[in-house]
Specification:
By secondary structure, the protein is mainly β. The chain has 2 helices and 13 strands; from the N terminus they run αβββββββββαββββ.
Length: about 200
């Protein structure tokens, strides 16, 4: 599950999770007029939100540069601690809000982007990395698992570089300030909670 915490943070940051089973019904109507290319992500911040009671916590998370250019290179380091082994299904709920003046407006879930519920991130991991194939670098080098179940323990990702490809976002997720609350649970028990803040700039 500590490795799932890393996946949780990255998915919440860039909303790059693929389609998953289930999903929240849109809570407000958004007229889509096409997609735009994401060009920059900046102002990144994070904090745990489980009030110290969750068995999985992110101990550190660093993202550079600021802003991040897309396409471009991303350097990330992270440390996660979990005191409980975790297995499928691991439900993930994302609440994504965009600043509108002094107000924060919750975005709907459209095409698995926005305030979505993913019934099992284990299924997402199996889709991204087919079972039986080695975990990609640098996860393999640092002994970070990429499939459920996850053993209890501490996992660290030293500063590592990743190449970010072009990213297309729907029109309702364009320029502005955002905040995300991501919660992972299993059988009704909250396991991890993290809040992220960032800004998006698109072309």
């Amino acid at each position: 599950m500590p490795a799932a915490g890393l996946v949780l943070a990255l998915c919440a940051l860039l909303q790059l999770c693929p389609a998953a089973l289930g999903g929240l019904r849109p809570q407000l109507l958004v007229e889509r007029s096409g997609s735009r290319r994401l060009s920059k992500v900046g102002g990144f911040s994070w904090e745990n939100c489980g009030e110290g009671k969750d068995p999985v916590v992110i101990q550190s998370l660093s993202v550079a540069p600021d802003p991040i250019s897309i396409p471009g290179n991303l350097r990330i380091s992270a440390a996660v601690n979990g005191n409980k082994a975790m297995a499928s299904p691991l439900k993930t709920v994302l609440v994504v809000e965009k600043a509108l003046g002094d107000l924060w407006i919750q975005l709907p879930c459209i095409d698995q982007l926005g305030s979505c519920t993913y019934d099992d991130i284990c299924t997402i991991l199996d889709t991204l990395i087919p079972p039986g194939t080695p975990c990609p670098e640098p996860l393999l080098t640092y002994g970070i698992p990429c499939h459920c179940p996850f053993k209890a323990g501490s996992y660290s990702l030293p500063a590592s570089d990743f190449a970010l490809p072009d990213v297309e976002l729907p029109s309702f997720m364009t320029n502005g300030n955002y905040r995300v609350r991501a919660v992972v649970s299993s059988k009704g028990e909250e396991l991890a909670c993290v809040k992220l803040g960032f800004s998006l700039q698109s072309q």
